[in-house]
Amino acid sequence: MKCLAILFTFVALSECLVKIPLQREKTRRGMLREKNLLESFQKTHHDIDTEFITTFSKRGRFKKPLKNFQDLTYYGTIYIGTPPQPFKVLFDTGSSSLWVPSIYCKDKACKTHHRFDPRKSSTFQGTEQPFSIKYGKGSMEGIFGLDTVKISNLTISDMEFGLSTRESEYFTKSIYDGILGLGPGRRSSFIDNLMKKGLLEKDEFSVYLSGKTDGSMVIFGGIDQSYFTGRINWIPVKYQWRIAVDSILVNSKKIACRDGCQALLDTGTSLLLGPKSEINQIQQAVGKVRLTFADFLHTHSFNCRNLRKMPNVVFVINGIQYPLTPQAYTHKDNGHCKSGFSSGSKDYDHLILGDMFLREYYSIFDRGNNQVGLAKAV
Description:
The protein is mostly beta strands. About 15% of the residues lie in helices and about 40% in strands.
C-alpha cells in the first residue's frame, strides 16, 4: 500500500483473536512480589523461566521514533535474531505481516538492502511455511521463520516473520528493507503477539506523524498527550483498521461519500486514495485543476498561488468533522502544487486515509476494544 514511491494496497481480512488472560502467571508473580522474592527469583531462574521474566517485567509503554522520508514513507530500525541484525522497516497499519529480505533472495531488490542470515542467529527457528503478498505496486514471496525481534527496548521472543526469497523490482529503490505490518491478520500479527505475551500496559498503540524528517513516533501500549490537543474521539472498527465515514463536505455541502463509505487508516500510504468517482468529485469541488500522470498515479495539479482561495475538505466521521486544509491536501513538486487525492491505479471500493490525513490527526489503534481514536495533532 504505498503512493508515489510507496503505494501498497494489500488488505487482509482480519480475524479477532482471543486474548489469553494468563492468570496463573500473574498470580505467581504477585505472590513472589508480596514476599519480596521476585528479584531474587528472576536472577536465580533466568535460564529456565526466560519467558516469564520477559513477559511481565517489562509490561508498559514503548516508544519508537520514526524517520520521515519526503512525506512518502515513515520507517524505523528494528533488530532480528541473536546477535541482532538491523533492518529499516516501513511501519504499516494497512498490512499485518512482518517481513525482511533474506540471504536466500537473489533478486536485485534484495541485494540492494540488508538481508537476514538465519545461520548467524542462535535463536532462529525455521518453519518451511511459504507465504506471498501482493501490494498495489510490488509483490514478494518467501517463508516464515521464528526469532527474537527487538524494537527500541521492547523485545519479543519467538516472533513470526517472513524471510523473502523473491521480491519484485519495485522494491529496489525503496528506502526501507522490509515492512512491519501493524494491522490485525489471520495469522498472529505483531500487535496480537504483544497482546498475547502481556507486554503492553494497554492493548493499543498510537501514531504521531510529523511533517519534518525527525519527530514522528509510534507508542506501543498507550498514548502521549504532548502529541495532540483537545479530546480523543473514538470510532468503532469494522475490520482491520477500517472505519465508517459519514460523508465528505466542501463548503458545508456533501460532495462525496454521500451515503456513507468505509475508510482504512493506513500509515503505509502517503496520499489519500479512493474510488475514482469519489476522488473526481473532490477534485472538482476544490477548484479547477490540471490532470497529470505520475508513475501509475492519477493526480491533479494546482497553481500554488490559489491555495489561499481553495476550500477545506471535511471528513465527517462518527458525527465529528475532520477538516483538511489546502496546505494539508497538497504538496509542492517542480513548482506546482499537486493534489494529495488520488484514485491510484485501480478502482477502490473504499477510502484509504494515508499519511496526508494522519499527519493532521494523532491516531490511536485500540486492538483490545476494536476501535480507533482521532485527535488533532500538534
